[in-house]
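Fold sample X.
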Amino acid sequence: MAFTHSINSDGYPNSYTLIVPMRVGLFGGTFDPPHLGHLVTAVNVRNVLKLDIVILMVANDPWQKHATREVASAVDRLAMVRAAIKDVDGLVAGDDEITRGGPSFTADTLTALSVRYPGAALFTIVGDDAAAKFGTWQRSNEIAKLSTFQMKSPNFQHWLLLTDLVRRLCRRAISPGTVSRCQGSK
């Protein structure tokens, strides 16, 4: 947070303006297809965390899904996300990973978002399915440094999993239902 002000001819401030950093949520995924659970999560997390926007980032090449099933093309999945969020305030379809090409890595996307939104507070939003596999994500320590984690899950056990992961990454625990700023391990 910062203050700016203008000075009048007598040398006194005319007014002060409080500059609050933008709050941007990154909710990445395959979105094959996007479903009501994705939308409810994005809208709820946006409201609870008072985010300016939540970007539903469509993975270009969801490398963790290749072995498990066929995935619709990135262009088709992006079109489905755009249709699903049409007229939903504060939700944005992200095509950065498609434009960048190759495998999709959250650390790369967060780095790009920190350039696009300088000074913004970035939040990585994950569902319980992604949290269960977070230990397999590429460069998870960079993700922890670049953003705040928020996990949405109906299953408390996944909170325990995420808490243990963040504890190992950050050497500090978070309690279920809270958001933790993670500075990464030293």
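Fold sample Y, listed below.
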Amino acid sequence: MLSQQQAQYRIDAVKLQEGEGEARMIERLFRLEPLLCDIGLQWYGLDKAGHPLDRKKREAAETEAAQKFITLTEEQRIQLFDAWFGPQLGRYAYRAYILDKPYQTGYMRKAFRAREFTRLQQLTEWSWLHSALRLTHEYDQPLRWFAEYAGYLGYRSDSLGWLFAAAIDMGGGRRRRDGA
């Protein structure tokens, strides 16, 4: 097992420069069809040129993006997740997004399901999406790397659990060489 210091050294070695992960994501969004690009940028709080919006405009943009997002086909959503998370994590992130999960979040949450309350479900899904994206875009690494270092990544690393569950659900787990 690595010490915290050893792990932090390895994490810092692969961490992207400030803003580089976001710039790569924006570049991928610009390659999408206009509707998907707009949704992706708005959801992330950016204008059509990829510049940050002020708080008031950001909230309005995120609301508009959410309303547009729920009308997308599965294929369009997959394209958007590939742009947000990159080619290494996009398919896992989309699968994590559609997993059946508790609707409350935060430290005081209680697990329950209320399928008829789609707004509750959307809030949980979008909250997870924000956390997972803010954490993963700082590192251009495969899912396995995140699994190895999740315990050392600190704040928001609990959002990686749904990515790992999605990978397992998709059959992405491989047996270890020792058979365990």
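Sample Y note: The chain has a mean pLDDT of 85.
Also: The CA atoms of residues 52 and 125 lie 23 Å apart.
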